[in-house]
Amino acid sequence: MKAQFAGGREGRARLAWGQRAIWDAIQQAGPANAHFFNIGRLIPFARGRGPFPLDDVVAAVAAMVLRHEALRARTYVDEDGEPFQVVHGEGALPIRLAECADDEADEVAEVLLAELARTAFEPGDEWPARFGLVVVEGRVRHVAFALCHLAADDYAADLVARELRNLLLRGGFPVQPSQQLLDLVTEEESGVGRYRSEAALAHWEKGYRRIPPAMFPAVVAPPAEPRWSRAVLKSHALEDAVAVVATRHHVSTATVLMTAVTTLLGTLQGHDVCAITPIVHNRYRPATRNLVATLTQLGLFTLRNDPLAPLAKTLEQSHSDAMRSYRHAQYDQRAWDAMVEKVSADRNVRVYPSCCFNDVRPVEQRTATQVSTDGPCPAQVEWLPGVAHFNCDFCFVVTRQAGTLAIALTADTCRFPRDRMVTLMRGVEELVVESAYRDTRPVDLRVLT
């Protein structure tokens, strides 16, 4: 089955800044790992709020693709190897159907979502969106979709899911998109865009001249099998504690966790100045509030190491630096590359921290929430299947699992072994809990190994 759409604006453009950053990351990750950049969502329709007739859902999908230019933009590569994109005004988006019995719908939906997200999107050969519908007796119980990261980031994927659900439930869209993909590219090429980029790159260059060239410069252990290990820690104690600390210091929970991670890396790695690159959603302006596109880019957060300082003091001193890292996360990716080459040449060493922080929770879940009065209880680190190749030495992720805050870490075990991964993750939990309930001392990492 296909969702037919027609009547949209057409155009050709270079990749937007955030798209170019993702394009480069996908090329570095290699074809075998490109599917890790796909973004999937599942929309269930419980009884009383669905299910919906199949034709209605197919029409809603077509309306969503027509509404957002990024969902109908195909990426190509020119004769010089440079990527560009074409927004198509009409076309037909294939939709997979999975028919099943009522009691099988939830399980079938999970399998369908995994299948949609399992393979990389091929530039030029397919649309940047894959949709699938779970159908029970002719009515749709679940909508599953996977988006190419060149078309959407996590914020945009949440927006697509929310708008599609509201379209089916309420029969229309409340507002027009604040901006479209072609408008974004035009803005970035304008004088305003250049000014924004230059200010951001000045921030980056200043930081790149003072940070260690690499956060994990040495091979310190034989590789695990596979080399990049992945672990997750789900913690009620951390969820409660980070809300307390964030409220107390008038910052987001993401800022608390990023500061905690950077603090502990300074102790574990022995750097005087630590650097971590948060992946920033860049949705602070009204024009980008409900834009479906990839706006995420790296920010640069630096922190001078003080192993004796409690987290409260560190947050007070580093809050403005964290805000600057968020504010200066929009820039021309090609100009950023040139800046890195320039600074690396001046320092006679390649400068790149290869250390990132990514909060993939919906934006509304990043502020402090009501906390429980239960005492803290340590959580266990669980190991996930690793990967043989990854484009970052250290990637710390904040997410949710089964309704609870979770922190996850992917690391190159040659440079940050599995025992350090455990120490770091338990250390983050302990440091934040200490700050929430006692706030009197730093964490002694030796007791966590």
Automatic annotation (TrEMBL):
GO-annotated cellular components: cytosol; enterobactin synthetase complex
A GO BP entry: amino acid activation for nonribosomal peptide biosynthetic process
Domain Condensation positions: 52-433
Pfam families given in the database record: Condensation
GO molecular function: 2,3-dihydroxybenzoate-serine ligase activity; phosphopantetheine binding
PANTHER family for the chain: FATTY ACID SYNTHASE, NONRIBOSOMAL PEPTIDE SYNTHETASE
Name listed for the protein in its UniProt record: Non-ribosomal peptide synthetase condensation domain protein
Species in which this protein is naturally found: Herbidospora galbida
